[in-house]
Please model this.
Amino acid sequence: MPIQINHNNSISEISYEDLIAQIVEESPGPEILIKDSILTDDEWRSLDNLHIFHRYSPTEYPPGDQLIVRRAIESRRELQSIALTSKSHAYIKGNLIEESYYLLPLENLANDNQIRGAARLFYLPSFHPENIFTTVFRTNRIFFEICRGKKSLWGSLPQRMSQKSNSGFWKETCSIFNPSDQNSHARIIRYSELPPPIQSWDEFLEASLLAQDCYRPALDGVGYRHKVYDASTSIDVSWDNPSRDIDTAQFLLMDWYRACLVATGLNGKSIDDQDGA
Model:
């Protein structure tokens, strides 16, 4: 569809290519009005309010008031995007969850001479608070801790909006994560009380090495993150919507964790898995 251009209250039509050519030749000045479904959202706007004019004009003109506002919005969107990307990465791959729940880093635990190794399973269901299950294999006993927030940490992060708005593509969430609202419960048991098939650190480490990253697409599913450390090993993997039929190594560990919850009396302290896990 041709672009409408208003020269001294005389409206004519011009192609996109011809408009660019005239801007290069400095034929229309910055005050000339144009109307187009794409460039101006079907509104009459002066050329100095359009990026295309400033991009092709050989003379540098100050931006119009509408373009100043638009550039401010675009700048805010970019900053919001950078901030959310950083937060999302810290949540998924970094230490944001552990820091927010005040959990001691596994790397610190693994450096203790009295500890053979440590592991942490993050259970991250859609629309529910996180559950974090920490296991510390000491020389003669095993320490278990289940930690769950009252509200989802992920839900407290700014969320992307599906529709364009004047304020940008992001909105602040009404969910506020308060670390003091979390519930934490711990137990200590002997190795002889561990449920099969894993009843030692060596067996646990062997099983963990087999449970590598996996991804099964789903709209709103469940994610896991599994971290394992000892003096010579570092494992950090993600299981996104794992399938019991396909991801058998991952489910062996998840089933073992659930058996440990039962064995320690912590089974009533966490959300059960969705989708048959």
